[in-house]
Amino acid sequence: MKFNILNKSILTGFVLSLAFSLSAQDDWTVPANESSKVCPTPFSSTMKMDGKDIYNKSCKSCHGDIGKNNFVPLVPEPGDPAGEKFSKSSDGVLFYKITNGKAAMPKFKDQLGESERWAVISYIRSFHKDYTPAEGGSETATEVATFTGKDLKLFVNKDQVNLEITTEVQGNVDGEMVPANGVRVGFFIKRNFGLLPVCETITTDNKGIAKAIFPNDLPGDSLGNYDIIIKLIDDDVYGKVEYKETLAWGKSFVYDNPLNHRAMWGNRGNAPIWLLLSYFGMLLAAFAVIGYVMLQIKKLKSLGKK
Amino acid sequence: MSSEKLTKEEAKSRFEKIVSDITRPMSHHYGLNVWIFTLLMILSLFGYAYFIQIRDGLGVTGMHDYAAWGMYIANFVFFVASALIGMLISAVLGLSGQKWIIPITRIAEMIAVAFAMIAGLVIVFDMGRPDRVLNIFIHGRVQSPIVWDLTVVTTYTLISTLLLVLPLIPDMVIIKKRLTNAPKWQIMIWNMLSLGWIGTPEQYKILHRSIRVLLILIIPVALMIHTVTSWLFAMTPRVGWDSTVFGPYFVSGAFVTGVAGVIVAMYFFQKNYKLKDYITDYHFSKMGQLFVLVAMVYMYFNFNEFLVPAYKMKTGDDHHIMTLFVGSWAGVFWFAQIFGNILPMFLPIFKFFRKPMPLMIIAVLAIAGAWIKRYIIVIPGQLHPHLPIQNVPDSFHVYVPTGPEVAITLGTIGMAITIITILAKIFPVIPIWEVAEEKGIDKETINE
């Protein structure tokens, strides 16, 4: 089942990329102020390991194994991240493209935190021999993060009737846990192909609260379960803070394999009844006549013996 | 001539002449040795080529990822087409009361049996490993046209064999009594197939009834065998195969091939077996008329098959039709259309071309045209797939049959002719009892 949906996603990507191929040639220009952006912290080995995990989850299905040139042949082609197209791009260009997406390249702005996106870039850069790290700056990081506390925590309250989740974010300010105001929280449902945002990113109010209503018509597993993920978007500032749970809020979805039904494309045990009747009916009729003639021949022979 | 009443003596002497005329070529003669030697050469060439194919696999053929069906399948379609003639002559014309077909019914049935039998074998040769034919029985799905085809080819072969054997029964007794010098194994076969025939009215009744029932049965089965063969192609959305008239198009084409085959065989037997009194110019003239009729029907379906898509010129079809009509396939295409359809439709309208020799020449060319037509149906469509052929060796853009492939194909034709030769050697090619009855000789004299 997983395989099937993965295939569907790839196919969808393929179709999408065909549809956009006219507009999305290699002329993907990145604004100058974006292309000069650099990671606020130097690339580290832990960052690279994180990047690898994220890459395998979110990027590999199209871009393939880095260095093996086994990316999915879409138009325009996604390319191997070890290739020149990537190594000659500045960090800012890569970051912009991952953040905003275009055509078949998904927009990861709301699904991956900034540090997660930089982690992916640090992983990709480990394949570029001639890469020299740019001087780290910090001007990008503090743009949105206004809450200055540390050790942020999420407290989640579920409303089973309205499928509403209220998240209270608290952080440590001077040794005391206080509601975190102005922190961006993302609400997601895990799908096979990445994270599905439930709504736009929500910024906590002065009580540290962000709310989101979850859908009830989304296909889950056979019991209607889906995994939710609530996390802080600015993980480069606050670190990785997230909350995961499996909830039975979706619609029960049982994959109905068409091969299990009687059909022309079915296996031999699932031949359509009308076809079986026609085939064996005709065969039987023909061989009944042949059998009749055989009996006549026998009779002919016995008549000759008299 | 059948209306005059013959005396007992006259009837007897006339009957003995018929028997000796028809059975004379069954004894050994020099020409046969040469003929059999030629056939053996072809068969041994086949044997060597098939050994290579078994040893090295289907890679020795010109088939590849794109043209996965090649000369073998074209040849298979041709064989099935040729086999249909038994049904047209014996069943359609016979049941409608045409008396002139009596002397040629057995020739038609022999062709039908030989070609239907080998048609099945051709499929086995098309498989890289012949043992895989068992997989059709082990894993075959009723939904697959290939299973339908296997079923119907087998059934048709069985019915055709019965239709060959049943009218032989009275003849077996006639020749068994007279050709006592024949080799033992031949007499044994005659004995076996005479089935205790003594010619009682009851036996006649049973024989006629059985033949009649089979003649009725073989009409739908024969239509099905070639319709299903056409479905092997028409059930796919491929350019050039994706056609709703493929069934009747194939059947009508088969009748042209079959009539041509019978004309060639008639000419051969008339000359070599010296049967001028039985296979007469009148028979050739009739076959010539039949040739015109079936060619007209075939032309009608050709118009449908090409004019309709050519008017619309859908993407894919356009390229296919242009390559056939004016492109790289134009030469063979027009050869097939002119000699396989247009000439047989017009020339035999004139009396001169219905004489044995001219008609035989038209028939030989029509057979060549028919074979090439099958080739054109099978191969070009595969070379214009809906998705472009890319990232493959250059040789995958064309299909060129190899030496072993041609040798195996020739071998199958050799096999069919060998079967006809053997059948014509151990059985009379003209039904003695039916011809005698037609000439007014009473049943008593025939069965004496």
Which second-level CATH architecture of chain B applies? Up-down Bundle
Please bin the fraction of helical residues of chain B. Answer: over 70%
Largest interface: A-B, 27 and 29 residues
Backbone structural class of chain B: mainly alpha
Summarize model confidence as the mean pLDDT of chain A: 83
> In total, how many domains does the architecture of chain B comprise?
1
* Secondary structure tally, helices of chain A: 8
Assembly level: heterodimer
If you had to describe this structure to a student in words, what would you say it looks like?
The complex is a heterodimer of chains A (306) and B (448). Chain A has 306 residues and is of the alpha+beta class. Helices cover 34% and strands 18% of the residues of chain A. Chain A folds into three domains: 2-125, Cytochrome c-like domain (Cytochrome Bc1 Complex, Chain D, domain 2), CATH 1.10.760; 150-247, Immunoglobulin-like; 265-305. In chain A, strands 4, 5, 6, 8 and 9 form a five-stranded antiparallel sheet that branches. In chain A, strands 1, 2, 3 and 7 form a four-stranded antiparallel sheet that branches. The radius of gyration of chain A is 30 Å and the shape is elongated. The N and C termini of chain A lie far apart (73 Å). Mean pLDDT of chain A is 83; it is low at 18-25 and 137-144. Chain B is mostly helical and 448 residues long. Chain B has a single domain, classed as Formate dehydrogenase/DMSO reductase domain (Formate dehydrogenase/DMSO reductase fold, Up-down Bundle), CATH 1.20.1630.10. Chain B is globular, with a radius of gyration of 23 Å. Chain B starts with 7 loop residues before the first helix and ends with a helix.
